[in-house]
C-alpha cells in the first residue's frame, strides 16, 4: 500500500470519529485535510518536474540517434530503399508495442513502464553504436517495441492532473519533448563531427541509462494513487485486473475501441494525420531537391519548427483549452490545418514555407493535444495507459504507410500534391464535424 493511500486512510478515520467528540475532531479534521492536500500537491509538483526532465532527456537522445541513423546506414552500405525499409520496420514495431506498453503501465504502474521504456532505448542505441552491418541496424530497431517514454510520461501527467487542466498539462509536457527536439540534433551533430556516428549513439544510450536511475528514484510506483479524479484501486482490485487478460489482452485493448468517443477521435486522427505523415516523411527529400537546402540550413528549419512547437504547446494550447470546449477546438484546429495546406500548395521558396508552417504547427499541435486529452477523459483512470497506447499507435500506423504514399505522390505529382491532398482531406473532415460532429466529449 502506497504512502499516499495510508495518508488518505488516516484522514478518513479521523472523519469517522464518534459524535460526542465531533467538536474536538472538527478542527483536527480540517488540519489533517489541509496537511494531506499540501503533501499531495508538493509530491505532484516534484513528480511533474522529474517527468518533464526525463521527457526532455528522452527526446534529446531520440533525436541524436535519428540524426545519426541516415549517415550510419549509408556508411554501412544501405541504399535509400533499404533505409526506407528500416524506417518502416521502426514504425511497425512501435505500432505493435504502443497498446501493450499502455496496458503494462495500467497494470504495473507508470514508474515500471518508464523504466522499461528507457531500458529499451538504452539497448536500442547501444546496438546502433555497435552496428557493423545493415542487419545490426535492423536489429537495433526491435527493442523500440517498448520505447514509449513519451507515452509513459503522458500516463503520469494524466494520472495526477484534473480533467479541466489536462489539455494544458499534456501541452506543457510536449514543450519538454520539443526542447529535446531542438537540442538533440545539435548535440548529435557535434558528436558525430568530432567523434563519429557510433559515439553519438553511445551518448544517447548513456543518457537513457541515466533516465532509468531518475525514474526509479523519483517517480512513485503507483501514480494513479495520486489521481484527483478517482480513489486509487486496492491491492485486491489490482490483482483482479492483472488476472483479467493481463498485459497482452487484445480483448481489453479492443474494448476501448467500442467506446464511441475513443473510436471517433482515433478515426479523426488517422484521416487528418495521413497528409501530415506524408509531408513529414518526405520533407528531408523536398528540402534537398525542391528548396535546395544544405544540411546545416535544413537543421535550422527543423529547429525553427521545434521552437514554434514549444510556443504553441507551452502558451497557446493552455489558453485556448481554458476558454473553449474541446469540440470547438477540434473543429477550429482542423480548419486552420486545411487553410495551411491550401497555402502550402502555393509555396515556391523556403521563406514562404517558414510562414505557412506557423498555422500548420498551431493547428496540428492543438489537434494532437486536444484529441489525446479527450480520449483520456472518456475512460476510467485505470485504463488511461491503454487508451494513450491506442493514441500513439495511430501515429505509428500513419508512419507505416506515409513514406510509400509520399514517394509515389512526389514522383508522379510533385511537391504541390502534398498541399492539395491535405486541403481536400482536412476540408472534408471539417465539413463532416460541423454537420455531424459532437458538441462535447
TrEMBL record:
Keywords for the protein's UniProt record, in alphabetical order: Membrane, Transmembrane, Transmembrane helix
Membrane-topology annotation of the record: Multi-pass membrane protein
PROSITE patterns: MFS
Transmembrane segments: 47-69, 81-101, 113-139, 200-219, 261-279, 299-320, 327-344, 350-370, 379-398, 418-435
Region (Disordered): 1-26
Pfam families assigned: MFS_1
Organism domain of life: Eukaryota
Major site of localization recorded for this protein: membrane
The keyword Zinc is assigned to this record: no
Keyword Transmembrane: yes
InterPro entries per UniProt: MFS (IPR011701), MFS_dom (IPR020846), MFS_trans_sf (IPR036259), Tet-R_TetA/multi-R_MdtG-like (IPR001958)
Record localization: Membrane
Biased composition (Basic and acidic residues): 1-24
Major facilitator superfamily (MFS) profile domain residues: 47-440
Listed name of the protein: Major facilitator superfamily (MFS) profile domain-containing protein
Amino acid at each position: 500500500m502506497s504512502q499516499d493511500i495510508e495518508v488518505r486512510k488516516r484522514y478518513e478515520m479521523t472523519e469517522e470519529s464518534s459524535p460526542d467528540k465531533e467538536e474536538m475532531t472538527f478542527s483536527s479534521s480540517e488540519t489533517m485535510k489541509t496537511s494531506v492536500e499540501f503533501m499531495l500537491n508538493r509530491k505532484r509538483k516534484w513528480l511533474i518536474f522529474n517527468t518533464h526532465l526525463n521527457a526532455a532527456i528522452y527526446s534529446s537522445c531520440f533525436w541524436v540517434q535519428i540524426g545519426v541513423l541516415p549517415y550510419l546506414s549509408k556508411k554501412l552500405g544501405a541504399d535509400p530503399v533499404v533505409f526506407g525499409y528500416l524506417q518502416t520496420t521502426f514504425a511497425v514495431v512501435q505500432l505493435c508495442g504502443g497498446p501493450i506498453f499502455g496496458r503494462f503501465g495500467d497494470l504495473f504502474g507508470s514508474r515500471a513502464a518508464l523504466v522499461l521504456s528507457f531500458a529499451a532505448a538504452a539497448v536500442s542505441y547501444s546496438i546502433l553504436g555497435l552496428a557493423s552491418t545493415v542487419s545490426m541496424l535492423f536489429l537495433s530497431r526491435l527493442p523500440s517495441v517498448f520505447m514509449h517514454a513519451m507515452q509513459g510520461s503522458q500516463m503520469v501527467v494524466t494520472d495526477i492532473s484534473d480533467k479541466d487542466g489536462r489539455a494544458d498539462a499534456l501541452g506543457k509536457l510536449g514543450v519538454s519533448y520539443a526542447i529535446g527536439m531542438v537540442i538533440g540534433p545539435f548535440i548529435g551533430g557535434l558528436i558525430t563531427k568530432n567523434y563519429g556516428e557510433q559515439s553519438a549513439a553511445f551518448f544517447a544510450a548513456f543518457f537513457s541509462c541515466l533516465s532509468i536511475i531518475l525514474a526509479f528514484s523519483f517517480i512513485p510506483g503507483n501514480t494513479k494513487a495520486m489521481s484527483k479524479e478517482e480513489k486509487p484501486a486496492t491491492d485486491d482490485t489490482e490483482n483482479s485486473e492483472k488476472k483479467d487478460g493481463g498485459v497482452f489482452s487484445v480483448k481489453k485493448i479492443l474494448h476501448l475501441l467500442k467506446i464511441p468517443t475513443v473510436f471517433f477521435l482515433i478515426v479523426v486522427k488517422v484521416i487528418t494525420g495521413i497528409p501530415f505523415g506524408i509531408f513529414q516523411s518526405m520533407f528531408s527529400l523536398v528540402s534537398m531537391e525542391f528548396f535546395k537546402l544544405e544540411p546545416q540550413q535544413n537543421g535550422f528549419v527543423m529547429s525553427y519548427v521545434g521552437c514554434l512547437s514549444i510556443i504553441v504547446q507551452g502558451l497557446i494550447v493552455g489558453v485556448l483549452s481554458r476558454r473553449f470546449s474541446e469540440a470547438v477546438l477540434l473543429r477550429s484546429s482542423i480548419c486552420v490545418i486545411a487553410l495551411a495546406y491550401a497555402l502550402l500548395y502555393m509555396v515556391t521558396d523556403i521563406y514562404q514555407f517558414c510562414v505557412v508552417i506557423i498555422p500548420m504547427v498551431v493547428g496540428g499541435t492543438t489537434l494532437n493535444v486536444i484529441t489525446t486529452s479527450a480520449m483520456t477523459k472518456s475512460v476510467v483512470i485505470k485504463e488511461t495507459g491503454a487508451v494513450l497506447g491506442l493514441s500513439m499507435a495511430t501515429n505509428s500506423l500513419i508512419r507505416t504507410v506515409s513514406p510509400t504514399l509520399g514517394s509515389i505522390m512526389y514522383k508522379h505529382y510533385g511537391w504541390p500534391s502534398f498541399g492539395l491532398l491535405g486541403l481536400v482531406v482536412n476540408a472534408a473532415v471539417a465539413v463532416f464535424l460541423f454537420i455531424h460532429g459532437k458538441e462535447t466529449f
